[in-house]
């Protein structure tokens, strides 16, 4: 824009450019002229450019003229062989990203009017992207919140904004759920996204990163003390978790509980009610609740006498097929690592896993068999289970798989004949792993970490790459038709000579 042009001239010129771009794709390059004015040093020109961008990209979003999905790099867009319509949408979405990035920079502009207009425009885009998503939804339904555009997370790095956000979030959850028979899933998803964005400093001390500047800080202000932030953080999560959350939201909370919630609470033991409720739900929810419960038991001396009995109850055939299998066995390995556990308890876990192994898929067996051997290494008293070569088998096994109490399962009177049976497994790697009990168990444990994430596809790919013997003698009878018919179509085309 020319230096002597007034606000009215700038508005009219930008308006013509917006209309040209919206009227014809042949005028698409005019968007560069609009974006260029966002870099102006004149406050009023910047404001007119922001309004023009709001009109332009708001219309493009509403008309579906921005590419939807994982956006390729601009270099790939320019050099690719896509159709003209698809290429235009990708190119224009890159211009939209440039606009949003510049609006984010303008939030630090010296002029309050520019900052306010930039923020309101970004929030308009948040709303429009919610109505016309540019990415695929990651949870059920079609709802998607454009959290990458919503840049509030950056402001949460300021201690005062974080503190007051926690208080506001706590009050909002209380008001939104007060007296309502049913709260929409959208609310719980949005509330979790906001709460999980809050992260406190881990080191004790006074806080001093404030968005609202002060000439001096008073020691009487709660906002400068980390302990007060911990209290607000705790109240925020407790108010959220006291409700009957949808299972999907409950899973998300449990995934971050041990690392992002418990370490920041003023009184971590207050989470016991939520974790025990989650543990009693069963399935994947119970598996995810294990980590938080274990932390409360071992780091905060919380009494939970039925912990190992409930852990034992989680061992059923489905444990080898759930999404969180790797996490479960990582935690189970941790829970059973103490040398102070009674032999009957460890024997019960080893026996239950061995029995389940008889019907487990190969990828699970490659992890479970070393797991069982590690239990025997840690607890020599349980090695009697593999020192009974003539021990009872299935028809006379004293072990009771239906018993819920591991102390009453009589596992220590049994033997691990299941491992001997698995030595005849069709997969050679499983057979080899099961044969480890035939030799004296080495003192160092076998790390199961590399085996936790092994999938059936990886095993299949690995087997395909193996080189077999050069020539294998075969004896076979050539095919002579389908179902014994000698002159049918199959006989003509597929008979082996």
Describe this structure in words.
The protein has 497 residues and is mostly helical. The chain has 3 domains: 7-131, Serine Threonine Protein Phosphatase 5, Tetratricopeptide repeat; 152-176 and 185-303; 305-471. Helices cover 54% and strands 0% of the residues. It contains 21 helices and no strands. The protein has helices at residues 7-23, 30-37, 43-62, 74-79, 84-106, 112-131, 152-155, 159-177, 185-196, 226-241, 247-261, 272-281, 283-299, 307-313, 325-335, 343-357, 362-378, 417-422, 428-434, 456-465, 489-494. It is flat and about 100 Å long. The relative contact order is 0.04.
Question: Helix and strand layout, with pairings?
Answer:
Layout: H1 7-23, H2 30-37, H3 43-62, H4 74-79, H5 84-106, H6 112-131, H7 152-155, H8 159-177, H9 185-196, H10 226-241, H11 247-261, H12 272-281, H13 283-299, H14 307-313, H15 325-335, H16 343-357, H17 362-378, H18 417-422, H19 428-434, H20 456-465, H21 489-494
Helix pairs in contact: 1-2, 1-3, 3-6, 5-6, 8-10, 9-11, 11-13, 12-13, 13-15, 16-17, 17-19
């Amino acid at each position: 824009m020319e230096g002597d042009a007034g606000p009215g001239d700038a508005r009219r010129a930008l308006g013509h450019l917006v209309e040209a771009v919206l009227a014809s794709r042949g005028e698409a390059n005019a968007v560069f002229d609009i974006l260029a004015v966002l870099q102006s040093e004149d406050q009023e020109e910047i404001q007119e450019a922001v309004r023009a961008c709001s009109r332009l990209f708001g219309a493009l979003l509403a008309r579906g003229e921005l590419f939807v999905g994982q956006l390729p790099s601009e270099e790939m867009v320019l050099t690719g062989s896509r159709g003209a319509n698809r290429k235009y949408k990708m190119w224009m979405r890159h211009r939209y990203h440039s606009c949003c990035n510049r609006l984010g920079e303008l939030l630090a502009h010296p002029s309050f009017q520019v900052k306010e207009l930039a923020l309101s425009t970004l929030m308009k885009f948040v709303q429009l992207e919610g109505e016309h998503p540019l990415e695929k939804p990651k949870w059920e339904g079609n709802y998607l919140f454009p959290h990458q555009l919503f840049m509030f997370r950056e402001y949460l790095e300021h201690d005062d904004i974080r503190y007051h956000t926690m208080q506001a979030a706590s009050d909002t959850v209380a008001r939104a759920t007060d007296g309502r028979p049913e709260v929409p899933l959208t609310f719980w998803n949005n509330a979790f996204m906001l709460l999980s964005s809050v992260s406190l400093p881990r080191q004790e001390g006074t806080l001093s990163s404030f968005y609202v500047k002060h000439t001096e800080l008073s020691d009487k202000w709660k906002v400068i003390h980390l302990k007060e932030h911990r209290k607000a953080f705790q109240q925020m999560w407790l108010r959220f978790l006291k409700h009957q959350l949808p299972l999907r939201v409950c899973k998300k909370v449990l995934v971050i509980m041990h690392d992002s919630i418990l370490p920041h609470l003023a009184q971590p033991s207050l989470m016991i009610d939520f974790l025990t409720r989650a543990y009693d739900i069963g399935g994947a929810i119970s598996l995810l609740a294990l980590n938080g419960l274990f932390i409360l038991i071992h780091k905060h001396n919380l009494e939970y006498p039925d912990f190992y009995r409930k852990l034992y109850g989680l061992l059923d055939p489905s444990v080898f097929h759930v999404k969180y299998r790797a996490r479960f066995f990582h935690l189970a390995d941790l829970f059973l690592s103490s040398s102070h556990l009674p032999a009957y308890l460890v024997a019960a876990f080893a026996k239950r896993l061995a029995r389940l192994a008889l019907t487990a898929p190969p990828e699970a067996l490659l992890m479970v068999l070393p797991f069982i051997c590690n239990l025997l290494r840690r607890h020599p008293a349980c090695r009697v289970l593999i020192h009974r070569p003539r021990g009872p088998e299935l028809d006379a096994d004293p072990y009771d798989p239906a018993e819920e109490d591991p102390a009453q399962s009589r596992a220590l009177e049994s033997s691990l004949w299941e491992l001997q049976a698995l030595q005849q497994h069709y997969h050679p790697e499983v057979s080899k792993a099961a044969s480890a009990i035939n030799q004296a168990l080495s003192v160092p444990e076998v790390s199961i970490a590399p085996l936790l994430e092994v999938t059936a596809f990886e095993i299949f790919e690995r087997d395909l790459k193996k080189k077999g013997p050069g020539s294998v003698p075969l004896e076979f009878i050539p095919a002579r038709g389908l179902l014994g018919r000698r002159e049918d179509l199959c006989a003509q085309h597929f008979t082996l000579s």
